[in-house]
Design goal:
about 80% helix, mainly alpha, about 350 residues, single chain
Length: about 350
């Protein structure tokens, strides 16, 4: 053994990860310490929270549980044979990981593969499930502002911000839908689409003196082969499960908004839905863990634009974060320990 052997296997220090974490932390401080206190009051928000009665908390807690449970259904739709208990353990654990660290989504995907493998699913089935649920989740977040515009148009309260978000969502959905159709339509169309994308990427890489490659082409063909059967056979089931999941999230927000005292006369249901939609869209940008900060700023500012007081908007956001960020993180710790217990029992049975 050489002197350098203890260092073997260690991961190299990554300045990119360090800078990414520092940038996320700086953004969180800017939003929660520098921006929000300028037009809202944390002490006022706390006062509103303490005034919530027991029945309000019961309603919020019930909606929060349903919201967490509904997150399992898209996975069950995309992965036939997945038990609800196994899906709940995976979703809660992965959500906690994704919310805990910058770029935690990548770590969460790794844990998803590990957990689903332990439940007896193949790598191909897991890949297909992860890819399709991810696409449908992003599609839902892009579609929400579109639905919001339609609802607001009926009441004549469409704002420029929502209109722009809706147009962006429509354009992204159309492009993504056409690309998805070409990928799953046939292997040859996936090849052609991948070749076109590689030409564009290689043209850009040429200026940086990087070698040409066919990574996109190979990835799209692989993606099409793994997911075509799910998209063709279970697309409606997956779409329905995703819509129910989004609806459960909105109902939770609506209950919170009404519980803290924001009446329909101040902010309509359509306006609350719009605030929810823009918040979800802002949180989809992977700048901070779980969209923390960016999602909050979008929700608070939009609610205030539609007529809620800044303090009420902040209160609703903080309670929403409690139910969808802090509590799920604690639940994720519990589900991870449950999974470790299952693994221990499986190992013990194999030994005997």
């Amino acid at each position: 053994m050489t002197k350098d052997s203890p260092k073997q296997g260690r991961r190299p220090f990554s300045w990119q990860k360090l800078l990414g974490g520092a940038a996320s932390l700086a953004l969180l401080i800017l939003i929660f310490v520098g921006l929000i206190p300028r037009f809202s009051s944390y002490s006022g928000a706390w006062t509103h929270v303490t005034r919530l009665d027991i029945w309000s908390w019961v309603a919020i807690a019930t909606a929060a549980v349903v919201n967490q449970i509904s997150g399992v259904w898209p996975y069950q739709a995309a992965m036939p044979g997945l038990r609800f208990g196994h899906g709940l353990v995976q979703v809660e654990t992965a959500t906690a990981i994704a919310s805990a660290v910058p770029a935690g989504g990548a770590v969460a995907i790794g844990m998803t593969y590990t957990m689903f493998s332990s439940f007896g699913f193949t790598d191909v089935a897991i890949s297909a499930c992860v890819i399709t649920t991810g696409i449908w989740n992003i599609g839902a977040k892009l579609a929400l502002p579109v639905v919001a515009v339609a609802l607001l148009a009926l009441t004549g309260h469409v704002t420029a911000r929502v209109d722009e978000a809706a147009l962006t969502g429509v354009g992204a959905i159309v492009v993504a839908g056409m690309a998805l159709w070409l990928i799953i339509r046939s292997k040859s169309s996936a090849h052609r689409l991948g070749q076109l994308a590689d030409r564009v990427i290689n043209w850009v890489l040429h200026f940086f003196k990087r070698p040409a490659a066919d990574r996109v082409e190979r990835s799209l063909v692989h993606f099409g082969a793994e997911t075509a059967h799910i998209v063709r056979r279970r697309a409606w089931f997956l779409t329905g499960a995703s819509l129910v999941n989004q609806a459960a999230g909105f109902v939770l927000v609506l209950i919170i908004v009404r519980a803290i005292g924001i009446t329909s006369g101040q902010v309509t249901v359509e306006a609350v839905f719009t605030s929810f939609a823009l918040s979800r869209l802002a949180g989809a940008i992977p700048i901070t863990p779980g969209g923390l900060g960016t999602s909050d700023a979008a929700f608070i500012s939009t609610m205030a634009t539609f007529g809620a007081s800044s303090t009420h908007a902040l209160t609703a956001d903080l309670v929403w974060r409690l139910t969808t960020y802090l509590l799920p993180m604690l639940g994720g710790i519990v589900t991870y320990l449950i999974w470790l217990r299952w693994q221990s029992r499986s190992t013990t049975r194999l030994k005997h």
